[in-house]
Amino acid sequence: MSFINICRDNTDPFYRYKMPPIQSKVEGRGNGIRTAIVNLAEVSRALGRPPTYVLKYFGSELGAQTNESQDRYLINGAHDANELQDSLDGFIKKFVLCASCKNPETEIQVKKDILQRDCKACGHLSLIDPRSKLSSYIMKNPPDGGKGKKGKKAATATANVVGGGKTIADLVTDQKNDDESGETSLVVDENDDDDFLTKKINAEAAALADESIEVNDDDWAVDMSKEAIEARAKLDGLTLDSNAEFNQLGEWLLEESKDSKEDLPSDIDIYKKIVELEILDKAETIQVLAQTLFDDNIVEQIEEHLGLLAKLIKQEEENSKAFLGGLERYIGLENTSLIEKVPKILMALYDKDLISEEVIISWGSKVSKKYVPKEVSKKVRKAAKPFVKWLQEADEESDEE
Ligand SMILES: [Zn+2]
């Protein structure tokens, strides 16, 4: 069974948080017809929430009685898995994802009359709408605190990781506004003669074109916002799950090197795989590599993979930025002990002619929430400062000469 992204809106090329899709089975007939959610326990574990919360949510959303006994989770009436999966999206949005960075690794806190999600990734506390029926249930039945919680935590998203390379991007921030309305922010006049879809595509294409001209810092990476990807997919006739290839590459590399990065396939085999997946000239490919090739020995490993990296990055700006973005994610979210090594890492990239001085200076001078939450980006930039400053001064000196 293949896993799906916990946040199904997330079009990140390399999303780490996965869950099994809901499996359901309709039982009985007539008035007694009901639906068993066969794997609710697994799905809930992936979300780090008690199964009862999810079941109650379904009940209130679908207006049906629910029933729970001996690990059997039942809803009255016939509901197919797709319907439940869609409803689950609502649960995830309201009760799981951090409202700021959209990371699903959150815990529900009950404080006085307030319910909030406490994000492990960015520290943000997001309020949970108290008007929801489930909210009042949670108030009365808070997630168990103390010891039990730790055990449960370990079994959540982390245990369920199929991919690796931690993510949670900006796009998420980009989508925040849409989340409220469930629509794109583009204004489309439906009363016009033009076919609705055509207009929408045109509008999105126009938006895309605008973005590619105006390169401000926050937009400097590939625009991974849902609208942009959809527009691109429509224009190119690509399918929306074209991200599957990036995932495939990332999961393959992580699987091969799960014990040690020394077990990674050779650069030649990695290159072959990239060709095979037809993602050779994609900046996202480089981003995935930045998130999967390294561990604590990153400085040495940059040198080991120099051939492959140089061949892919080609000192091109877009690729360079994707590589730095991937590193930022890996270092800022996955392996934070490397933050103090950031100057050394940048030095290696510069020294080996992998990333140009200009790109490093520009990257280091502006905080961007494109790849990681803003606070994380700040932290990484702060660590990078000594090296970036050194580069700038060296640059000025050579200008004076
Ligand atoms: Zn967060």
Automatic annotation (TrEMBL):
One of its GO terms (cellular component) is cytosol. SUPFAM superfamilies: ARM repeat, Translation initiation factor 2 beta, aIF2beta, N-terminal domain, Zinc-binding domain of translation initiation factor 2 beta. CDD domains: W2_eIF5 (cd11561). InterPro entries: ARM-type_fold, IF2/IF5, Transl_init_fac_IF2/IF5_dom, Transl_init_fac_IF2/IF5_N, Transl_init_fac_IF2/IF5_Zn-bd, W2_domain. This is W2 domain-containing protein. Keywords: GTP-binding, Initiation factor, Nucleotide-binding, Protein biosynthesis. It holds the Pfam family eIF-5_eIF-2B. GO terms for molecular function: eukaryotic initiation factor eIF2 binding; GDP-dissociation inhibitor activity; GTP binding; translation initiation factor activity. The keyword Protein biosynthesis applies. PROSITE patterns: W2. Residues 239-401 form the W2 domain. One of its GO terms (biological process) is formation of cytoplasmic translation initiation complex. The keyword Transcription does not apply. Belongs to the eIF-2-beta/eIF-5 family.
